[in-house]
Amino acid sequence: MRLRILSLAVALLLLLGLAGCSNTPRPASGSSSAASQPQPAASASAPATRQVVDMLGRTVTLPETVETAAIIYGVATNLMLPLGVADRLVAINASWGILNVVAPELADLDTVGQGAVDLEKLAQMNPDVFIHRANDQRTITAVEKLGIPVVAIEPEDTDKMLETLLLLGEVFGVTERAVELVAYYNDKVQFAQDLVADIPENARKTAIMMGSELGKVAGGDMLQSAMIETAGGINMARDIQTGQTWPVAGTEQIFSWNPDYIFCTNSKTSDYTPEGLLQDPHWSELAAVQGAHLYKMPSTVDSWEFPGLATCIGFLWMLNQMYPERYDDAAFAAEVDAYYQLAYGQTFSREFLGY
Amino acid sequence: MSKHQPAIEQEKQAVKNDKLRARVTGVAVLVILLIAFFVAMGLGKYNVSPIESIQILLGIAPEQDAMAANVIWGLRLPRILASMLCGAALAMSGATYQGVFKNPLVSPDFLGVSQGACVGAAAGILLGASSGLIQLLAFVGGLVAVGLTLMIPALMRSTSNIMMVLSGIIVGGVMSSVLGFLKYIADPESQLASITYWQLGSFSYVTMDSLLPILPLMILSALLLMGLSWRIDIVSLGDSEAKTLGANVEAIRVLSIICATLLTACSVCISGTIGWVALVIPHFSRMLVGSSNTRLLPASALLGALFMLLVDTVTRLVGPAEMPISILTGIIGAPFYAWLLYRRRNTIQ
């Protein structure tokens, strides 16, 4: 008898479970009405504020001047460096080559996490703004609940990357600089397109860009695919559009595409090396291998294909590789100098950059 | 007849002693847990003194620091409550499974609840669902997996424990494959990291909003299990003995499994999957209070809460950024389990 009552209770419990879970409030606008909920930290004295619209279309209230910023998303650092505002960072996710060269003071900067944020540590730093990728709603909501404004960015294709530059320029009060950089970038795109405009479709070089694992390629919806196309090449993997970064095409598919050029991503963690592939007997029949047109993307200072301003040097480098008769080494080297002069106020030798 | 009298008296005395010891242990653990709660509330990377933290918590802080209040109320409190609740839930459900299956090696994972919850959560992450929906999908995924595991023996008309264990392996295998597929199609830069983080468990992003709707279900499941506890004792005597005593073995077993599964599913949908707690804590508790489930279940709950609180506090404090919690529960849990086995090596056949 009592067992029967218990059974009934369990059945009710199951229903309750589903109802209870589905009642879970959606993380909506970030603000909350419950009494125990935190209030925005800046309520004591009301300093001057202003508003920007981030790439999720949300209106974010920021202090008049943003003096400190924290990030766990490396692309943001990469975009802040040429804007000249990287010195306002108080926390980054990880250090990499470019920081040691152009901003050595950032190389030892503290961290608030890699994949997820250490919220309490972030609260301790209390930066003026937290910049994060738009597709991580959970982190955005959690940080906003602390009362720290979050600017969401989504620099995954060329247009959005330039839009992000302008947005960050607005956030850090360096709009003029952002406009200057975007104009430079657009100028280079135009230059490259003009240079290859008269090459008929059937005379264009075919290419792919491989990811950090053998068989992974840049699909048609990736920034790296746009770089190949801007440089006058045909990305053989352009029909792969999964919304996924570096989809797996497979080595056999690469063999059947048999591209003239194979560019390899600039990653330290690749499970292959371009030198190894060039000597691999199984790869010896490929056009790219026979012509020795299989390269790792430069450079040792910054990656020319990681979302950022340097991608314009990336597609110009591809152009120089695929059509040297139209764009020779000397012209490209001059452009590299101009780029680093503009971005970081210094130039590097060809040997140092490793191209 | 009179010859047996002293033996029965002795037995009664032993039971009394056991009960007394269990009660003392329970009170002691409860006190330690309370102290641990306040210590944990006072510790963290945000620079606010332990005393001030408690003052903010109790609403008697002399000065208003809005950020400190956000940290104490918005981060530390929900997180500490969540870690205690999940630790208690996992340990209780582990103890129940071990009692019902008469097998000290089982944990809630073996009926597929964790794998199922992971599949649900991963599907939610891939669909770009809100965190509330991801929680719900994880919960449903866990229940579906256990439902499948319980269905297979029913279809085969064999409800022996070994059949249950084998069907758990089958369902777990399928779920791992589905999870592998979801991870394969996930975007490596954003979604895959979330899924992996979820799989390893973390209390970093727990909020009151995500905790409160689950709370009633957890408490009710736990209370029901307490109500079932002496019946689980009967079931663990063995099927024939239990039937002789007039117990409906099947019903008790299924009810206990459902309650224990609900507890695990609730815990998983708060924190992601966390290993080892459900396996190790019941063993440790058994060492302290004996194997009667009426004492074992509450003891496991208290010790589970304490253990998880300690581990989560360590992850909060140590290192430049937080690591997922299963890393630590594994590093502490596995050697601890080995030590427990060593202590009990003579009683384990």
Question: How would you characterize this protein structure?
Answer:
The complex is a heterodimer of chains A (355) and B (349). Chain A has 355 residues and is of the alpha/beta class. Chain A has 2 domains: 45-170, 3-Layer(aba) Sandwich (Rossmann fold), CATH 3.40.50.1980; 196-353, Nitrogenase molybdenum iron protein domain (Rossmann fold, 3-Layer(aba) Sandwich), CATH 3.40.50. Chain A has helices at 2-22, 74-83, 97-102, 119-125, 137-145, 158-171, 175-196, 223-230, 251-257, 274-279, 287-290, 311-322, 329-344, 350-353; strands at 49-53, 59-63, 69-71, 89-91, 129-133, 150-153, 206-210, 234-235, 261-264, 294-296. In chain A, strand 3, helix 2 (74-83) and strand 4 form a beta-alpha-beta unit. Chain A is globular, with a radius of gyration of 24 Å. Chain B has a single domain (18-343), classed as ABC transporter involved in vitamin B12 uptake, BtuC (Orthogonal Bundle). Chain B has helices at 5-42, 50-58, 66-100, 113-126, 131-155, 161-185, 191-200, 208-211, 215-235, 239-244, 249-271, 277-289, 293-317, 325-343. In chain B, helix 9 crosses helix 13 (293-317) and helix 12 (277-289) runs parallel beside helix 14. Chain B starts with a helix and ends in a 6-residue tail after the last helix. The model of chain B has no long low-confidence stretch (mean pLDDT 87). At the A-B interface, helix 1, helix 4 and helix 5 of A face helix 3, helix 5, helix 7, helix 8 and helix 9 of B.
